[in-house]
Description:
Layout: E1 20-22, E2 25-35, E3 44-49, E4 58-62, E5 67-74, E6 103-106, E7 127-132, E8 139-145, H1 151-157, E9 160-166, E10 186-196, E11 202-203, E12 223-226, E13 229-230, E14 233-238, E15 240-247, E16 254-258, E17 264-269, E18 272-279, E19 282-285, E20 290-296, E21 305-310, H2 316-319, E22 328-338, E23 366-373, E24 386-387, E25 406-412
Parallel strand pairs: 1-4, 2-5, 4-9, 10-15, 14-22, 23-25
Antiparallel strand pairs: 2-3, 5-7, 6-8, 8-9, 10-11, 10-12, 12-13, 15-20, 16-19, 16-21, 17-18, 17-20, 21-22, 23-24
Amino acid sequence: LLFHSPALEAYVDELPRPDVLRGESLELAARTGTHRFHRDLPPTMTLGYGAAGYLGPVIEAHAGVRTTLTYRNEISAHPHAADIDASLHGLSESVRTRVPTSLHLHGGVTEPASDGHPEQSSLPGQGHVHHFDNRQEAAGLWYHDHAMAITRLNVYGGLAGGYLLRDRFDTGRPDNPLGLPAGEFEIPLVLQEKIVRPDGAASMRSTPIVPEGHWEGGAVGDVGLVNGVIWPSAEVARGLYRLRMVNAASFSNWMLHLSRPLAMWVIGMEGGLLAAPARVDVFRLGPGERADVLVDFSGLAPGETVELLNSEEAAPQAAQIGAVKLGSLMRFRATNARGHTGPVPSTLRGGTGQPPALAPVTRAPAVRNVSLSQPSDIRIPPSIMSLNNLRWSSEQIEMPRQGSVEMWNIVNATPDPHPIHIHLVHFRVLSR
């Protein structure tokens, strides 16, 4: 009961590296473009930021230094216009030709006026000036479209990009005090999944069960994309690399690992660096989550390869109609060159030339239990997401006091995986 991509040879296209935007005053536009997902597919209509036909440049900013981003919506046509469900919240048939967008810095401690929340939308010819104060430590963030009721289509079309925040410890330069790989040895990786058609276009629909023009909860892909290319291959020198990963997929959680036992460490997640590198063989990444990962390729002989794989099966509701796990995302191929040869730091916080140690978790005087549910009403398809049985437009919202500390127990009462993050602030995950 699924659509399928045509048979495509893996690891024949080189991994592209995104352009980098630096500076305190930047301009960025969302545009309609063209892109080729694989060498054996024709170019197709896509969305992208700036000059990119698909995805967008990596924005590099510095902690404590304000980034002013002037954003404009210059979309002339949408590759998934026929998939828009005009019955959803606030939409009408006009959105098929006048596409709303809203640029959101995911993971940023951002003032509300610059948040890019779902109702802060811009139609073609309009825009918004965002002020990102970057009042947080160095971390791997990402920006993406967040327009109400069309987020999934805009991001799937290509409106996403990386945002690397640096500070005086994690400078991004080869002489950084932490001794981390930098420059050519630091690679941003935007991980996605898609179904593609023989004409080169990406299919937003995964199943004929859902008619065209009706909402689908999440398209499960059967080909892996990294930086906009299906199953790419990347040449790596024989040394230590820093991989800045974001799961930008519509739906799937991945349990990521390598095809051979190379040394691998997670050194940071959404909020920044961990206290110390965590040696791992496998780690989980849900949609929207980021991972800062070190991989040691020095054990490979020139010409040897290793694949980035996933071992997590498709979610049960997708498996019921035939979805299987997306097994592979990309390949690395060792060259003769010698790469970064410095040691893996034993600690990342609290020492000389390191950011301060993480503060101990304080006892929260206020505790909130927030239940996520998906009540179905056959009179109002599709089903509506709710928190504590309240909908988006409810005025009975949670009102924490600014400057306070609270503990939130978020309970997922649905059969679906539902990654959640909170806008405007940072938070600590105590358990999952």
